[in-house]
Design goal:
Elements lengths: L1 H11 L11 H23 L3 H24 L8 H20 L8 H22 L4 H27 L1 H22 L8 H27 L5 H22 L2 H11 L4 H13 L1 H20 L7 H26 L4 H12 L1 H4 L4 H22 L1 H12 L5
Helix pairs in contact: 2-3, 2-4, 2-8, 2-12, 3-5, 3-7, 4-5, 5-6, 6-7, 8-9, 8-10, 8-12, 9-12, 9-16, 10-11, 10-13, 11-13, 12-13, 13-14, 13-16, 14-16
Length: 396
């Protein structure tokens, strides 16, 4: 009996997962986030105004921060052992309810959204409390996180009950307090496995890119003609270019940077800044592009309205600028060509509201393709060396 108890305690202990990759349960958990992304896009598509855009991005940020918490959690404990597996499945159900509420999160389902969100965050804190029983540093960090989370959830519930502008203000404050907590409270007590953590965030980028493909399908509907076919092909090319710009070298270099960071405060701060914070504008940019794709497929021959055009162009630009900040945080190098492309995309907005949506889509694809061509040609030798150094196994 004692041996069984010791084994269960060890499974819940705050131990690093050296050599482990993302587990099937984590991938299963992330599938719920697919629905969350789709729902945020649907919310913005239903209300294609600046206010609708802001509401969709705020809901996305709240969902992102909930997901980030579980990314840190499952880099500390084995998610497929003991009570952790059951609690994660319960959290999945709660996150599913949150996602279902997104289209009416600023109306009739605001309270249910906030309550379900509170359940998801409470499950996360409960598992971290179990994981920190034998680690004083982690326990102190979890205590601070629990206090911030409780305040944040209370503000969400208060905002949901208040409604209107008060809801938006309280939700923004809740998000700021929750997301700013790890930065203000310090990061020395947390634990993570670098390879697992980087892979988990890379997979969520792929999931977000999958939302772009879904947006093409939902935007096209059941009527397929030459214009829709062309838009679908160009839209797929845009998604492919965004994949290339992240995974070809950037993700590999960032993962190596995280692995080489000293365990403890330095590594945790790199993980916090590069992944928890800077991956959000990447995902948000992809979601905005998905909104633009959805609106384009609906009327390929007509100009986009200002907000969808800004979402398409600005989303691609935001994605590139997030890469610039990501690269600077990891290797302190500035990517001028990505900034230039982001500026060029933003400058095209006045023309985008006059030209057919298909033409705007083509411009985005062309800019991203030229960027890839330039970087591949300009840094061919460096790229080849980095990819081989990062992919080949280390010598014994």
């Amino acid at each position: 009996m004692d041996e069984t108890s010791d084994r269960q305690t060890q499974r819940l202990a705050a131990t690093l997962r050296d050599g482990e990759r993302v587990t099937p349960l984590e991938l299963f958990f992330d599938l719920v986030f697919v629905l969350a992304l789709t729902q945020c896009t649907a919310l913005m598509a239903h209300d294609p105004s600046w206010a609708g855009l802001a509401k969709g991005l705020l809901a996305l940020a709240l969902l992102w921060w909930a997901w980030v918490g579980y990314a840190w959690l499952t880099s500390t404990v084995d998610p497929e052992e003991g009570v952790v597996k059951l609690v994660l499945m319960g959290a999945m159900a709660g996150l599913l309810v949150v996602a279902l509420c997104v289209p009416h999160a600023y109306g009739s389902e605001a309270v249910l959204f906030a309550a379900a969100y509170g359940v998801v965050r409470a499950a996360h804190i409960a598992l971290f409390v179990l994981a920190s029983r034998d680690d004083d540093g982690l326990r102190r960090s979890v205590s601070g996180l629990a206090a911030g989370t409780a305040v944040g959830v209370a503000l969400l519930l208060g905002g949901a009950l208040a409604g209107g502008n008060a809801q938006a203000i309280l939700w923004i404050v809740a998000l700021a307090l929750d997301a700013g907590g790890p930065y203000l409270a310090g990061s020395s007590g947390w634990r993570l496995v670098p390879g697992h953590f980087a892979e988990r965030h890379g997979l969520i980028v792929i999931i977000a890119l999958g939302e772009s493909i879904v947006a093409i399908g939902t935007g096209a509907g059941t009527r397929i003609d030459a214009g829709i076919t062309a838009a679908a092909v160009i839209g797929t090319a845009i998604a492919g270019a965004m994949w290339w710009l992240y995974f070809d070298v950037v993700a590999l270099v960032a993962e190596r940077r995280l692995m080489n960071a000293e365990a403890g405060r330095e590594r945790n701060e790199v993980a916090r800044d590069s992944y928890s914070y800077l991956h959000f504008p990447m995902v948000a940019g992809i979601v905005l592009v998905a909104l633009g794709l959805k609106k384009t497929l609906a009327h390929v021959g007509d100009p986009l309205d200002t907000v969808p055009a800004a979402a398409l162009l600005g989303g691609a630009g935001l994605y590139l600028l997030a890469h610039v900040a990501f690269r600077w945080r990891n290797v302190h190098r500035f990517s001028g060509q990505r900034v230039l492309c982001a500026v060029a995309l933003g400058a095209f907005l006045p023309a985008a509201v006059e030209l057919p949506a298909l033409a705007t889509l083509g411009v985005v694809a062309t800019v991203l393709a030229l960027l890839i061509w330039w970087e591949t040609a300009r840094y061919a030798e460096l790229r080849d060396r980095l990819r081989h150094q990062l992919v080949e196994p280390a010598a014994p």
